[in-house]
Write a structure and sequence with these properties.
The protein is of the alpha/beta class. The chain contains 13 helices and nine strands. The protein folds into two domains: 101 residues, 3-Layer(aba) Sandwich (D-Maltodextrin-Binding Protein, domain 2), CATH 3.40.190.100; 154 residues, Dipeptide-binding Protein, Domain 3 (Dipeptide-binding Protein, domain 3). Helices cover 44% and strands 20% of the residues.
Length: 297
């Protein structure tokens, strides 16, 4: 009996010891001696390779001398999925982020400070149309020229889509609840007669929201609206070569600066449709890191 009791005591002690070790390993990076870089394998979770924020992040890695770091290409959906997975487990993660975006209402997040200014200050989102649109479709041009809203407006639609609503339905519901704002966009505009209007857009939550709102408005006015999902480069190229009538996702002055310069003179910039946009590197607030410079540690 005493021999069996002794073996049982040793086994129980080993089990409790292993459980204690395991419990310590599950508490994210708290108490760990690993640096932020080591805990993330020196990887930043990015989006599609043609996005301006990806080029800015590559430049940030160079300017901040983060030689060990790399930004991983993917998509906006893959980025937010990775963020949610890490957030639910309170694990470390760094993503390329932008505002407006629904993730800031779903998760407690913060931008890393950018003392060098790689990501610039506040950005605006511009409506970009093909040359000749004003002559060919003057009323469509007028709607796009008068289109303007706020990050809060956009956020309502983005959140509805994230909660499972179809983009077209979410846009239609917002329009129904904001007839006064839509009336300003359509002031002095005559109805169409089935003329085709082609939009290009990137699969960013912000652009999906704004493009679907305008598509709904123009459809209600009697136009035949076609939406084509592409990457940022083809989006700008389509407007420049006239195969697309417009896109409303020109993030300026920084994010799409290269596309703006590349096709300068081959499109018409109708100016900002939204102010208060921002880009940068984003982390959950539970991470004890405040600046991009901290990634050197």
């Amino acid at each position: 009996m005493s021999s069996k009791f002794s073996r049982l005591t040793v086994a129980l002690g080993l089990t409790l010891g292993l459980a204690a070790c395991s419990g310590g390993e599950e508490t994210s990076t708290e108490g760990s001696n690993a640096s932020i870089g080591e805990s993330l394998d020196y990887k930043i979770t990015g989006i599609d390779p043609g996005a301006g924020i990806m080029k800015a992040t590559t430049k940030a890695i160079e300017d901040y001398e983060l030689e060990d770091w790399e930004v991983i290409e993917g998509s906006g959906a893959a980025m937010t999925a990775a963020l949610k997975k890490a957030y639910d487990k309170e694990e470390p993660i760094i993503v390329t982020g932008w505002t407006p975006h629904w993730k800031f209402s779903k998760f407690d997040l913060k931008y890393l400070e950018d003392p060098i200014g790689v990501y610039g200050e506040e950005e605006t989102i511009h409506s970009i149309v093909r040359n000749g649109l004003k002559e060919d479709l003057p009323n469509v041009h007028k709607v796009l020229d008068q289109f303007h809203w706020t990050p809060d407006d956009m956020g309502v639609i983005m959140s509805a889509i994230q909660d499972g609503e179809e983009p077209e339905a979410a846009a239609a519901a917002w329009i129904e609840e904001n007839e006064d704002k839509v009336a300003k966009w359509t002031e002095g505009v005559e109805a169409g007669n089935g003329e085709e209007v082609k939009f290009a857009y990137v699969a960013w939550d912000s652009t999906i929201a704004s493009t679907n709102v305008l598509a709904n408005v123009l459809t209600d006015l009697g136009y035949d609206v076609t939406l084509s999902q592409v990457e940022a480069g083809p989006m700008w190229a389509g407007v420049a070569d006239g195969s697309v009538d417009a896109h409303i996702a020109g993030w300026l002055p920084l994010t799409h600066a290269d596309q703006y310069e590349k096709y300068d003179g081959q499109f018409e910039d109708l100016g900002p449709n939204l102010e208060g946009a921002k880009t940068g590197l984003v982390v959950p607030t539970y991470m004890e890191i405040d600046s991009i410079e901290d990634l050197k540690e």
